[in-house]
Amino acid sequence: MNDNTTGKVAVITGTSTGIGLHTAVLLAQAGFTVVATMRDTAKAGQLEALAKEAGVEVVVRQLDVQDEASIAECIQGIITTYGRIDLLVNNAGSGYLGSLEQTPPETLRRVMEVNFFGVWQVTQAVFPLMRIARSGHIITVTSVGGLIGQPFNEAYCAAKFAVEGFMESLAPVARRLGVAISLIEPGPVNTEFVGTVQATLPDLSPEHQAAYGPMLNAYLGGTQQAFASIGQTPAEIGQVIVEAATAETPHLRYTTSERTRGLAALKYVDPTGDSIIKLTSGRLP
To answer: Is 82 a known active-site residue?
Structure first.
């Protein structure tokens, strides 16, 4: 383990690729004891190789955010081993691209299960430990799509909006109990996530092609251009997460680039969200 240990234990979901993978290594470099969780631990090779290259260690454990038994077993195992959880990073996510008419109920439920209910269940499992300790920090990776709805992303944005509402509502109560809440809101990020989402784009029927085809093609073209020109790396997002995790007084919201800050400013006068928490905290004793 890194000699510059903080003594703090960080648990991260969705670490087999992308943002979660890089965050795990960066937090280990920052001195955290990192428990990197993933649904399929057979996919841990890339993370283990990156950690070895960086000269740090991470502990890999199985956790499926859609499975309550898996969550309970993993969190209890971490408590048994370390006796504490100081930082939770909710990173596991799943995307979907398609029109309202192309989104069957089972797909909507899958997107909500991973992106919203998964975050809820893991947070619910960890929160009592932090409440009792009157210490801890919960960081959740959402998206600029959790602030501003994106065309053909109705299911994904609905889930991310739900997470934003959940965490913003929890934050003032958590603060009274000594627990910090933060949201990380990236724009375009060049990860395997994007290719996976586009690969699952459903076929259009002739009727839907006529109605949606030109709009969808224009949206996809603009999206590809955005990723090529302003897309961030997962390591850059990981650095923002480390910044939040090590802040003495963390913000509620962290947009990850000037571009996303500009978009957030269209919706929020204060893009950090601190004024919102000040306002809602004023209603508590």
So the answer is: no
